[in-house]
Fold this protein.
Amino acid sequence: MSFKGILFHKDGSVATITLNRPASFNALDLNISREICTVLETCRLDREIRVVILTGSGKVFCSGGDIKYFAQFAHTDPGEPVRQVLEPLQRIILQIRHLPKPVLAVINGAVGGAGMSLALACDLRLCSSQAKFKQAYTSLGLAPDAGWSLWVGLLAGFSKANEMVFLDQVYDAHQALAMNLVHKVAAPEELAAAARVWAEKLAAGATGSFAIAKENLNRAFLPLLERQLEVERQGVLEAAYSKDYQEGLAAFLKKRKPLFKGS
């Protein structure tokens, strides 16, 4: 298979999906989101694949939505690119959860916005000690989407989720570990080997049992996720038509501090 925005590699029973737009910090646009949907379906149907790794190329795992793509619609319909990218992104989140195989996020570097949602939807998360985590939405005048509020609320707790939303600080790998956002931290030069150890352990496990257990977890949490996805979809689209978002977008592109007015 040939793709423009991702790499897909199968090594025995382990499949690796690599976000491959390093010049754009592996940001999510319509094309890469659709390609991820395609390969996740391939992973579901291929019985030889027992474990899926999701990672990024370069120094970033995923920075979230592609702001430069969003900017193309700034003076016409600012909500349209958000809507375009959000639809396949929500599908990706649900595909990961419904995939009857373990999905391991290998967070090789910085992650923010929808990139966090993507990683947190996975079953296990291993990250580089150089990884950085940032909520990012509210600093742009947007609101979290793709299940971010549910994932962070469940994993890090309500208080920490509030802190991340309102202060939008940058957290390092060990802070992310302490907040339960990741399961293990590895040195950058050891990350690939550590991921391979986990992947091989999972592939050698009782994957039928894993599938049942994952479905049981889904039954407990997916109704919450599906409801939250719709709530967040409405919220981020409302924010995308605000003057604050237009200001946040302009400030981001001009690399200056935004002057939000709450409108």
